[in-house]
Every structure is written in C-alpha cells, then in structure tokens.
Amino acid sequence: MRRRTRNHIRQRKAAAPERPQDRWLVLGVYVFLIAITWIVFGQTRHFDFINFDDSDYVYKNQEVMRGLTFGGIAWAFTHLHAANWHPVTWISHMLDCQLYGLNPAGHHLTNVAIHTAAVVLLFRVLRRMTGALWLSAFVAAVFAIHPLRVESVAWIAERKDLLSGLFFVLTITAYFRYTRKPSLRSYGLVFLSLALGLMSKPMLVTAPFVLLLLDYWPLHRMATPDGGGNTPVRLILEKLPLAALAGASCMITLFAQKVAIRPLAEVPGTTRLANSLISYVLYAQQMLWPFDLTPYYPLRPEEIITSRVLCSVALLLAFSVFVFLCRRRRYLVTGWLWYLVMLAPVIGILQVGNQAHADRYTYLPQIGLYLLFVWGVADLCATWRHRRFVLSALGVLTVGTLAIVARTQASYWRESESLWSYTLSRTTNNAMAELNLGEAIHKKGRVDEALVHLNRAVEIQPGNFTNQGSLGIALLTKGRREEALAHLRTSLELNPVQAPIHSSIGVVLLELGQPDESLAHLRKALEIDPNDGDAHYNLGNTLLQLGRAQEAVVEYERAVAINPADAQALNNVAWVLATWPDALVRDGAKAVKVAERADALTQHRNLVITSTLAAAYAEAGQFAEAAKTGQHALQLAADEGNSSRAESIRAQINLYQSGVAFRDHRSAFAPR
What we know:
mainly alpha, two-stranded antiparallel sheet, elongated, 1% strand
C-alpha cells in the first residue's frame, strides 16, 4: 500500500499546476542551462574543420557544398554516402552551406545550437514527467557540459549525433503528451519525431524500448496490484508501429554499412564480445572520471585480456543484481536498462571501423546513468538534516568541475594538428592519429615532419591502404617519385577503388615521362569518381603535355564546375587561352574574363595569376592594361624575393609595351 501511495503522490505532483514562483525558477534554469552550454562550447565558433570525416560530410562533398536545393534533397533521400543513410543530417549540412558557405564558424554554431535545444528540452520533459525540478535540472546540466559531450558537439561531422539526440528528446516529449491525452494525432507526433531521429542517425533504434522503460518510471503506466495502469502486453502493442519503424531503420543501416562492417575473419566474435563487456564498464568509468578522452581509441586485441573481461562481467552482474534487489526504487531499473539497451547498437558486436569505443556513443545512453545516480543520491540523502545545503554545494562543485574539464577538452578540437597531437600524447601506437596528424602537417607544408608521422602510421598498420596512399602522396611532394610510386601502388593493391590514388599515380607517371600511362590512371580515377576535381585538373595537365590543349581546357573547366573557387584551374584555363601558340585554341576575351575571376578570388595577391591576367589582356589587345598588370606582378615577385620570375615578367612587359602578346611553348603546370 505504501508503494502505491508514493507512486500516486508522484503522479499528482507531476501533474500539479505550476505556481508563479515556479515559473521564474524554471526560467532561471533555462537561462543557466543555455549559459553553461555556451560557456563550454561557444569557443567552437573559432574552430576549423577537422580532417576526420568533415571532408566527406561537408567541405569535399559536392552535393552538400551546393547548398539547399531540390536536387540535393532528393540525393539525400535516395543515396548512401559515407556508409550511412541519414537524409535529415545531409539536409542540415546543406542548409549550413547555403547560409555560411564553407565558413566553419557557422557550422560549429549550428552544432552548439542543436545541442543547446536538446539540453533545454531534456530538462523540460524530465521536470514534467517527474515533477522534480532541481533533480531534472542537474541531469540536464551534466548532459549539457560533460566532457564526453565534446566529441559530439565540437566535431562538425557528428551533427548526426546532435540531431538524433534532439529528435529523441522530442520523441519523449511527444510520448509524454500522448500518455496524458491519447489520440491518433498525438501518437502521430511520436511517430514523426522518431522517424526524423532515425533519419538523422539510426542510434534511436532502441527508442521504443526506452519508452517502455519510461512507462515503468517515471510515468507509472504499468499495471499495479490494485488493478490500475496498463498491462505489459498492451504497452508493448502500443509500441509496435514504432518498433516497425526502428526495424526498417536497422535494415537500411545494415545495407548502408555493409562495406564498413569488419568481417569476423578480421575481428573474431569472441574479441567483439569481450571488448563490448569491457566498454560497458569503461563508459561508466569515463562518466565518473572524464580525463584522457580522445577522438580515437584503437582496438587492440592483445589488450583484451581475460582478467579485464572477468572483472567487467563481475561488475556488470553485481550492479544488475543490485538494481534487481532494489527494484522498488524504479528509477534504478529505468536508468540501468536505458544505459545498457541504448548502447547495444554501438557497443561493437557489429564492428564498424577500427575503434575500441568512442566518446560520441555515450551521447544518449548515459542519460540513463545520470537519472540513476542523481535520483539515487537524492534518496540516500533524504533523511539528512542539511541535505539541501550539501546537495547544492555538491551540485555546484560537480557542474563547475565538469565545465572546466569540458572547456579544456573542447579546446583541443580547434584544428586538426592540435587535436591529433593531443591524441598522440594520450595514446600509444595509434595509427589513425599518426595518419591524420601527418596529413594535417603535410597540408601546412611541413613535409619532412609529416613524413615522420606517416611512416609511423605505415609501421603500425602496413596493411592499411589509406596509410600507404598518404605516405606516397607526401613522398611525391618531396620529389621522391620512385618511393612514392611504390607506396601508391601498394595502396591500390590493397584497395583498387581509390580515385585520389589513381590520380596521384597519374601525376608521378607524367613526371617520369610516361604521359600515356598517366592518362590511363587519370581516366580510371574519373571513372571511379567523376566529381574528383583534382583528377580533372591533373588530366588537363597530362593532355596539355600531349599537345591536346583544347581537351586540357575542357578538363580544367570541369574542375572549376566542381569547385567554382578553384583559382588554380581557372588560371590554367586563362593561360592556355591567352598564350598557346595555336591560334585556334586562343580566345583573348574569354581568357580575360577567366583570369579576372581567378585574380579576384586570390585578392590580386597571387604572382602567377596576376601574370596570367597580364598575358590575357595582351591577347585581347589591351596592351596598356597588360603592361600595368605586369608591373603589379613584378612588384609581387619582388616582394616574394623571386628574382627568376621577376626577370621573365620584365621580358613579358617589354613585349606588351611593344604591342606583342606573349606565347608560351611550355606545357607543364604544377600537379596536385
């Protein structure tokens, strides 16, 4: 009788009308939650893209870069990309590109805004379901700024996590409304919210089960001994349409990720099971001690030893038994099963990638642990005389500490080099971190330093085609063509379907004086990926060396069509049209138009492009403008200390002053 009375009191409390003073308290909590979220994550507006999936999702994804278009929306729903089908996520990235272009600040701000909305709505629905304002506020605050949230919020490519989280909270909110006033319309809102969440990330396939847990606590919809409530069968039948939706999402996801799921031959089932058991305990440990977090934890079978597995099994069983024995405190059952079940799809039984575990996977599952611990501590302190003071002080200390640690953790995500340098300082034998750090440093022009990390990545994982390919590309930059070619060919042997590697081999072969072989590899690259702008550009170079200037111009223009801001390809088009010896190829008016566009993109500060513009003016008969522009190019050469280039520009200026256009008999442009 006592338990039923307490449950009924809780239900009445949750349904009680709100007092005016409570409204001000709630408003204050909203402001506080928004403030701490932005204190921790507002810094990301100054961050760059990361060389870890951000290219696939945004800055090298041609469909996304075009912005929000009808064609793009259709593509999002009808194509699998990056081993996923999540059209809502693609559409959100398209909208960001429509609004901000490729300015990462806007993309980061959208991430923070979505997370903030999820935090506020989580507090709102928990308070309404439980009637416990401060406990709900604390759960939402920890969810907002726990260091494990950093990966989901600071990583643009993890937008899918945030969107699925937002729609998950909206699903719970719609479900709560449905339980208060059941109707087809209110159930439809539950269905729609879950569908949108699944189309953001299939992590929500366990959501119907979580709704059943909410029926148990805090909604108390389960049948009671006095005949109240609903039977379990009825509640399960109520969730069947949602379960069918989740099942369909599972099938689509398995189909989409079939190329990414590692076969049992690579990672045996026993290893996966053992790692899963360890990960359940490790995620809980990271919740309590959120330090040494990194974006990538390599899966190392040699570290999955029997003692760790047995210890993990013992802890999981012990806590499960504890929850069962204390099941009268229903929040223990709901919180623990929420955690176990929501983690199940990403715990590693179906191994996607080479990671042992990932911070982002805790985004929603750990809410269950927050509920369990927060309500548990409140129960333990219920008889304390000074419990309000003690709990308030403990809450402030916890939130403050988490905010400081999370803000520091987020700072490492400002750009790729800082992120992967930090990762290597916290892990060992991490091929992924070595690879990504090497690529980030290579992009900055520090090739020798990059080679150290890329060689280390190959040493750790010689059978990884990405490691071999990136090392080959870096060696090519150093002019070590034979070594580069060996690693590039090894990469192709491991995975023949790589457009960038075929393109790079084409570059090497052209430099080795084998243009026909170069042509074959570049054609293959474009057969694999017709939207590879670099392959089109390199193919243009090869065709130009073969004397097929008109075809070369077509390829450069295709590179520009893929990336309208490709100043290098624009320059090549203009130079050929302005200086090629064959009059049938030259087109002065078009050369001027293209060169002016390239010059504007580089803010009139690029020596090569300014020289091209001068040549274009000369071909168009505008010799005075050609000489003037040539003088500007000469000044840029002087500023750079490029004396050899300055001499050639002076010779060109003399031609322009004599009313003669420049002709270039060379046929080589810098590859890429």
